[in-house]
Amino acid sequence: MSKASSSLENTTAVITGAARNIGRATAKRLAKEGASVVINAIQDTVSAESVAHEIFKAGGKAIVHMADVSTEEGATGTINAAIKAFGSVDILVSNAAIRAQKPFYEITLKEWRRTLAVPLDGAFLLARAVAPFMIDKKWGRIITLGGISAHIGTANRAHVLAAKAGLIGLTRGMATELGAYNITCNIVAPGHIDTERPASAGQRSPLKVTPPINRFGDVIEIASMIHYLCMPEASYITGQTLHVNGGIYLGS
User: Fold this and answer.
1) What is the mean pLDDT of the chain?
2) Which of 91, 94, 171, 249 is at 20 to 30 A from 64, Cα to Cα?
């Protein structure tokens, strides 16, 4: 696939966890740029449908596919729904995750496995399902959502951190195997973003360090980075973690 501009016309994007927050902003951004969008969520059908409605009103194309992508059936079904509706999947954004909070010594094995399954198993299963289509087309973008906590550590979120850290290894492995097919694989790692928080996420952890850009990030800023990684100008970026965090983490 060769594109001469930033437009995403004639592409299809699957976005998980797209009913609200970063997923919602990403779906709307990619649709605005011309992509046909598959909005995936697991339970909030009303919010997912409202995203699709906003995209329709703006002249875009979108469908809603409710599924648990941490299961083989759910992940494969989501990719197949995209193929059936739009004929291809060119962009995969694995954003779905569980925002849980509990001291690690109180986490049950069931909670541990579920918290890892949604972002990590889901990203793997979706990428495995979509890879043959991207390989056949010799073009694709696989983007996962990491997080600042996996790099700086956060109390009471060992399971969340483990899932996000696991995405780094998965993404690097995929990037190595898929680069020859013009398929890039990257992570966008948000810092402290102004989002709606479910009760399970608990209180937002206080900042130990004041970031140089001293404010919360906006979901649109994360969606903009995801959009950039889908563009031709980003075709030489793969296997990387792109931090969008106001400078609170400067790397090492």
Assistant:
1) 92
2) 171
In order of start, what are the domains of the chain with their CATH numbers? 12-244 (3.40.50.720)
DSSP collapsed to 3 states, the chain? CCCCCCCCCCCEEEECCCCCHHHHHHHHHHHHCCCEEEEEECCCHHHHHHHHHHHHHCCCEEEEEECCCCCHHHHHHHHHHHHHHHCCCCEEEECCCCCCCCCHHHCCHHHHHHHHHHHHHHHHHHHHHHHHHHHHHCCEEEEEECCCHHHHCCCCCHHHHHHHHHHHHHHHHHHHHHHHHCEEEEEEEECCECCCCCHHHCCCCCCCCCCCCCCCECHHHHHHHHHHHHCHHHCCCCCCEEEECCCCCCCC
Q: Show the CA angle centred on residue 225, arms to residues 42 and 208, nearest 5°.
A: 85
> Is the predicted pLDDT of residue 232 greater than 70, yes or no?
yes
pLDDT tens for residues 98-110? 988 899 999 999 9
> In one letter, which amino acid is 36?
S
Looking up tokens 């031709």 gives: 232
Question: What would the pLDDT profile of 200-227 be if each residue is shown by its tens digit?
Answer: 545 556 666 788 888 888 999 999 999 9
Pairing of β 12-15 and β 91-94: parallel
The span from the CA of 77 to the CA of 75, in Å, is: 5
Name the pTM for this structure: 0.91
Give the integer Cα–Cα distance in Å for 150 and 147. 6
